[in-house]
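Hello forum,

I keep getting stuck at the same step: I have a sequence, I want structure tokens, and every attempt I make locally crashes halfway through. Rather than fight my setup again tonight, could one of you with a working pipeline run this one for me? It's a single chain of 100 residues.
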Amino acid sequence: MASVMGISAAAAAENAFTLTIKDHRFEPAELRVPANQPATLTVKNLDATPEEFESKSLRIEKVIPGNSEATFTLRPLKAGRYKFEGEFHDNTAKGEVIAE
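Reply #2:
Ran it on my machine without issues. Output:
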């Protein structure tokens, strides 16, 4: 089991992605990740105000303070689209993770 977890951790580290929040918008708005592999997602909030990164389909909900960042481990995702938004600015802060 330890070696399986080691491989998963290595795969997640290899599949590391970053999203930024600036002016209450995500960049990139569409993030492509490999399907069926674990990944690491870092969300950097470059705005001075906090933002709540939320995705029901990714099962993530976390407030990220201004000028701060948070890192999440994504479970292996089936091919498809997984929407996310910044709940505090949901009129502009929207995006999708596309697993392919």
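The longest strand covers residues 16-22. If your local run keeps crashing, start a new thread with the error log.
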